[in-house]
Amino acid sequence: MTSSAQENGGAGMEIPCHEPLHCPRCHVPLSAGNELRCAVCSAVYPIENGIPRFVPKDNYATGFGFQWNRHRLTQLDSHSGMPISRDRLLNASRWSADELRGRTVLECGSGAGRFTEVLCETGAVVTSFDISSAVHANAASNGHFANLRLVQASIYELPFLEESFDFLFCFGVIQHTPDVERTFKTLFRYLRPGGRFCIDVYAAMVAYPHPRQLFRPITKRMPPAKLYSHVERMVPRLLPLSMKLSSIPGAGQYLARMVPVANHRHLGLKDEEIQRNWSVLDTFDWFAPRYEQPQTRRRLERWVKDLELSEASIVRHRGLYVIRGVK
Ligand SMILES: C[S@@+](CC[C@H](N)C(=O)[O-])C[C@H]1O[C@@H](n2cnc3c(N)ncnc32)[C@H](O)[C@@H]1O
What we know:
alpha/beta, Rossmann fold, 2 domains, seven-stranded mixed beta sheet, four-stranded antiparallel beta sheet, 12 helices, globular, disordered N terminus, binds S-adenosylmethionine
């Protein structure tokens, strides 16, 4: 990595440059202009609003693009005024802001950028990508960070050099891809040996499936705008009931699960409008994705073993497994 005199958003220090982007097929550096070009295979990759695109505009994650552009700010700490994303990232990963400063981080499936903001604030050299148009929402919120590079690309065809990142971060993504094992294993190709990773995934609850599974076969096929307008009407009706049920000591959280709207009581959000907004976003996020494939601990243990990582732990937390360690 070379040094540049750019200032980053958080620390006002000198930060290293990002590596040039490489052709996902030929792995040679791309030449830059109004678009990116590969001298070997002649592929041309457009640059839209400053963001290179390596996937077709329409793909299986189009609903995510809709969701994150509609809710560009909802989950950003700078918008909510609460350190919800910061605490979640730092607690789950056990990384500190000091460790991240000046190091290269690959953030995979960045959505609207709630975690991009946290990573950029540490002074890390952040590369964030998403397969969907969510990258434009992320740019609108986090584009002011000089230490951020955004790319629209898929985990399966990335324009980065292998083993080139110090940290790998991926939250809320792999269960939404068509082949979760392939996704999980592919991510590690981009982490340098000795680099640190933190990935989460929905935990499979075989004996206790969520009621949204009843509706998903229909809702995942609906046009995003139509589904969204249903969710917008459903949440104000059902959220008060869900909140009331969840306040019952002991059984409350199980009873609230019967009501098919997302409930964020545990976050202590400030007022009803903010609670409703988060609920609309996450209820849509339950029903819209083309793929939703929770994983068992046993399967994750097998994948981790196959990868021969130096260190890895799998921790269960609120319906998720967090897999973290060192390559
Ligand atoms: C539930 S969202 C999570 C976004 C963000 N990480 C967060 O926690 O707020 C899942 C994201 O994964 C992205 N995604 C799904 N498949 C992907 C792939 N193959 N490559 C890159 N991103 C992908 C979606 O577009 C979506 O923005």
